[in-house]
Specification:
Elements (H helix, E strand, L loop, with lengths): L3 E6 L9 H6 L2 E4 L13 E4 L3 H13 L4 E6 L8 H8 L4 E4 L4 H9 L7 E4 L8 H5 L4 E6 L5 H14 L3 H6 L1 E6 L7 E5 L1 H5 L7 E6 L26 H11 L6 E5 L5 H9 L4 E6 L2 H14 L4 E5 L14 E4 L6 H11 L5 E6 L2 H13 L3 E7 L2 E2 L8 E2 L3 E7 L2
Parallel strand pairs: 1-4, 1-5, 2-3, 2-4, 6-7, 11-12, 11-14, 12-13, 14-15
Antiparallel strand pairs: 7-10, 8-9, 8-10, 15-19, 16-19, 17-18
Helix pairs in contact: 12-13
Length: about 400
């Protein structure tokens, strides 16, 4: 059976034992910067990109009885072409000869252990939530590229931290960048967020973001007295838990929290689903300050505060998979209409109604707009044991609308 020899390349030369494989194969797959390693050989050269065309050509060569050598950077199983080749041709048709990965090289240059690093790949991905993905980790190593470059990442982190007045993290975070590892123009750069944001980098690099403290762990169950809020205006613990259950938050995607108040629901959502992109809309300056304080306290930078009043403040936000309406300021019908219009198919809206009028408007609007509707009422009572009379809170009706 014809075979694929997948060879990892570290540095600017091939190992001597690789040359017999190249000389005996029918075709060589290589990127532009690896083509020179096989210069002078008569074999067919196949560009590694576009990947789909490369895979089809490799299949044709194998079908004709020839072997194929694939040259790839570092360890091809570390965010490399190895996965695609295994998926297409199966492990039995491949022999994999890895070199040092970019992660190993970067950690060696920085002299840090990597067994406890958070590893995030932004290479070839469109990322809209750098702060939320990165700042929940004490140490995070990033695989970046020309689009998600270290300067852009640093600038977005700095912007998010500045918006929340988080001077502690701004002053404490240090960044190190290992650029063009193993090549003649290898470069190591270190600095603050502002210093890295002002630099420019090539497309091949690893970026280490370090915080001098550990962010808060991410279980469910914040208590009201742990969350900064004003005059008792906060979704009660029991209602918050039921609301999150009703939301059935996805691991990724976009969540709108409209009328965020203290941001309690957003905080729990960010802790439960740290890769979820959260937009918390709040019009009151006092509550905006509370939300910022809570983001700082819990390091939940997947939350982005939107200062303004719905529905106008919803314009320009990414389309949501989930929406929570905790406050409406007498504009409930317009908010629901805008949210339903922007909601993805299969998405869900949850509304907590305290007043009968809000409940009636929500039920009528949801039905009129074609949502599948469910509702339940929660009446919370608390008491201390031993002794103490129950403290009763106003009933809350949870209304759920599913977009079919």
């Amino acid at each position: 059976m014809s075979r694929i020899e997948l060879i990892g390349v570290s540095g600017v030369a091939l190992d001597p034992e690789h040359w017999p494989l190249l000389r005996s194969c029918a075709a060589i797959v290589a990127s532009g910067r690896h083509r020179s390693l096989a210069a002078g050989l008569p074999q067919e050269m196949i560009d590694i990109a576009p990947v789909a065309a490369m895979l089809n050509r490799v299949e044709a060569v194998l079908s004709s009885g020839g072997d194929v050598v694939v040259l790839a950077s570092g360890d091809p199983l570390f965010y490399g072409i190895g996965r695609r080749l295994i998926d297409r041709f199966g492990p039995e048709q491949l022999t994999i000869r890895p070199a040092l990965s970019a992660l190993q090289l970067a950690c060696a240059r920085f002299c840090i252990p990597w067994d406890d690093l958070a590893l995030l790949s932004f290479h070839g991905r469109e990322i809209d939530n750098f702060p939320g993905r990165i700042l929940r980790h004490r140490q995070a190593m990033l695989c970046t590229d020309g689009r998600s470059s270290p300067d852009r990442v640093a600038a977005e982190l700095l912007g998010a931290l500045t918006a929340c007045e988080d001077t502690e993290r701004i002053n404490g975070i240090r960044i190190r960048v290992a650029e063009n590892l193993g090549l003649a123009d290898e470069r190591l750069t270190s600095g603050t967020l502002a210093e890295i944001a002002a630099c420019s980098f090539g497309p091949l690099n690893m970026m280490l973001v370090e915080q001098p403290f550990s962010p808060t762990p991410l279980p469910l169950g914040l208590c009201e007295d742990e969350i900064v809020h004003s005059r008792g205006l906060i979704t009660k613990d029991e209602v918050r838990a039921a609301t999150l259950h009703r939301l059935r938050l996805p691991a990724t995607g976009v969540f709108w929290d409209i009328g965020g108040g203290s941001g309690a629901v957003s905080l729990e959502a960010a802790r439960l689903c740290p890769e979820l992109t959260i937009r918390t809309v709040e019009k009151k300056a006092e509550e905006q300050a509370n939300i910022r304080a809570n983001i700082r306290r819990f390091g939940t930078y997947s939350i982005r505060l939107v200062c303004g009043e719905a529905p106008e403040a919803l314009a320009g936000l990414p389309a949501p998979a989930r929406v929570f309406i905790g406050g409406s300021g007498q504009r409930l019908e317009a908010i629901i209409e805008e949210a339903v219009d922007r909601l993805a198919d299969g998405g869900r809206i949850v509304l907590n109604a305290v007043r009968v009028q809000s409940e009636t408007i929500a039920l009528t609007c949801f039905a009129r707009l074609g949502l599948r509707v469910a509702a339940s009422t929660i009446a919370v009572s608390r008491w201390r044991i031993p002794g103490g009379d129950p403290r009763k809170f106003n009933p809350i009706t949870l209304i759920t609308g599913d977009k079919r």
